[in-house]
């Protein structure tokens, strides 16, 4: 927690030093939806920090409608935004808007979701998404003691949106840890669904994850077969799996992974319904992006720490990767309450 707070303070001090230069400069921020808690937090954090740094901010949410987001980004360009920060609904959907930005010389920062198939993407800011998956997979490995326990153990997977480039990194990170145990027979995927295309969840919808989980439970576990673990790539899908288990499963409660530390999922961790989550402090990411905006507009070298990983199909996009943090019922108070991310009342 101290490391997280120190980084935020450091970045905010840099941002504050740029505020005098920012007056009158306009930044467009495009978020995909208000349906997921984290995007509301991302948008609010970004807007507040940019305004504190002296920028005018145009913040829009696109209601998970690709055409609406495309229109909103084009409007931001027409309205004189000098930098665009975009968290895309679907990574390859904004081509014409990105071309328009490039024609006008407007830099674009892809925010937590890589913009694909375009050379108009200047930078990418995100968390280490592969690490998110390895944290989840390692938790399952260590909790089941796969290197020593006899097994076999039964496991299922729920991944994220195929249109979100990050979803593959999350899934592959977890699968790379667990695949050797699947191949050896120590882990048994009873449904047989181990490919990303089979386990993906369009738009990360809780209801979609729940429906698929209900089908798996009725098809493969209704005879009393016990489930030991369900790897879910994020909290909205974990919530769907948890809902399905509560309604359709009577065996011992399995390990359930997640990501984002959403309020309901944190409550579920406290109650023992979800085993862990991966905390990605959106304040850290927002602060880093605000710093990058300032560096772009002042003509400085922009901070990046990865220049090899994120290929969008046209170019390798210079990226800044923030570090995700393991969260559970044992450390949520330090991570989430003591740091001011949530209040205790929000988790009651």
CATH class of the largest domain: Alpha Beta
Q: Which strand order spans the largest sheet, edge to edge or round the barrel?
A: 2-1-3-4-5-11
Strand content: 5-15%
Number of helices: 12
Largest sheet: 6 strands, parallel
Q: Regarding quaternary structure, how should these chains be classified?
A: single chain
Give the overall average pLDDT.
Answer: 93
- According to DSSP, the number of beta strands is 12
Shape: elongated
H/E topology pattern: HEHEHEHEEHEHEHHEHEHEHEEH
- The number of distinct structural domains comes to 2
Q: Look at the structure and name the CATH superfamily of the largest domain.
A: Response regulator
Ends: how far apart?
Answer: 22 Å
What would your notes on this structure say?
There is one protein chain. The chain has 348 residues and is α/β, with parallel strands linked by helices. It has 2 domains: 169 residues, Rossmann fold (3-Layer(aba) Sandwich), CATH 3.40.50.2300; 151 residues, Rossmann fold (3-Layer(aba) Sandwich), CATH 3.40.50. It has 12 helices and 12 strands. The strands form 3 sheets. It has a 6-stranded parallel β-sheet with strand order 2-1-3-4-5-11, with helices on both faces. The longest helix has 21 residues. The chain is elongated. The two termini are 22 Å apart.
Secondary structure elements and their pairing?
Elements: H1 2-22, E1 26-31, H2 37-52, E2 56-61, H3 66-78, E3 83-86, H4 95-103, E4 108-111, E5 123-127, H5 129-143, E6 153-158, H6 165-184, E7 187-188, H7 196-199, H8 206-221, E8 229-232, H9 235-248, E9 255-256, H10 263-271, E10 277-279, H11 282-297, E11 319-322, E12 325-327, H12 332-337
Parallel strand pairs: 1-2, 1-3, 3-4, 4-5, 5-11, 6-7, 6-8, 8-9
Antiparallel strand pairs: 10-12
């Amino acid at each position: 927690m101290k490391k997280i707070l120190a980084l935020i303070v450091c970045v905010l001090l840099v941002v504050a030093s740029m505020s005098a230069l920012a007056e009158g400069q306009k930044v467009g921020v495009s978020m995909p939806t208000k349906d997921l808690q984290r995007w509301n937090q991302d948008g609010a954090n970004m807007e507040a920090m940019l305004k504190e740094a002296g920028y005018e901010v145009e913040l829009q949410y696109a209601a998970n409608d690709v055409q609406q987001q495309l229109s909103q980004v084009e409007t931001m360009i027409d309205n004189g935004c000098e930098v665009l920060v975009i968290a895309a609904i679907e990574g390859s959907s904004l081509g014409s808007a990105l071309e328009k930005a490039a024609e006008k010389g407007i830099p674009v920062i892809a925010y937590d979701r890589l913009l694909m198939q375009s050379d108009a993407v200047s930078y990418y800011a995100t968390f280490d998404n592969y690490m998110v998956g390895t944290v989840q997979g390692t938790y399952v490995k260590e909790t089941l003691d796969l290197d020593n326990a006899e097994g076999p153990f039964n496991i299922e997977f729920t991944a994220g949106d195929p249109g979100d480039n990050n979803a593959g990194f999350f899934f592959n990170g977890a699968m790379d840890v667990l695949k050797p145990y699947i191949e050896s027979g120590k882990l048994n995927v009873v449904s047989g669904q181990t490919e990303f295309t089979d386990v993906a969840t369009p738009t990360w919808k809780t209801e979609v994850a729940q429906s698929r989980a209900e089908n798996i439970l009725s098809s493969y576990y209704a005879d009393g077969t016990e489930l030991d673990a369900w790897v879910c790539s994020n909290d909205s899908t974990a919530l769907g799996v948890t809902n399905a288990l509560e309604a359709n499963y009577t065996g011992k409660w399995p390990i359930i992974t997640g990501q984002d530390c959403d309020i309901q999922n944190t409550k579920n961790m406290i109650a023992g319904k979800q085993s862990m989550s991966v905390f990605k402090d959106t304040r850290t990411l927002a602060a880093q992006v605000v710093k990058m905006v300032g560096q772009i507009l002042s003509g400085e070298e922009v901070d990046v720490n990865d220049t090899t990983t994120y290929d969008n199909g046209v170019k390798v996009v210079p990226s800044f990767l923030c570090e995700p943090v393991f969260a559970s019922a044992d450390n949520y108070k330090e991570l989430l309450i003591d740091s001011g991310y949530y209040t205790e009342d929000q988790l009651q």
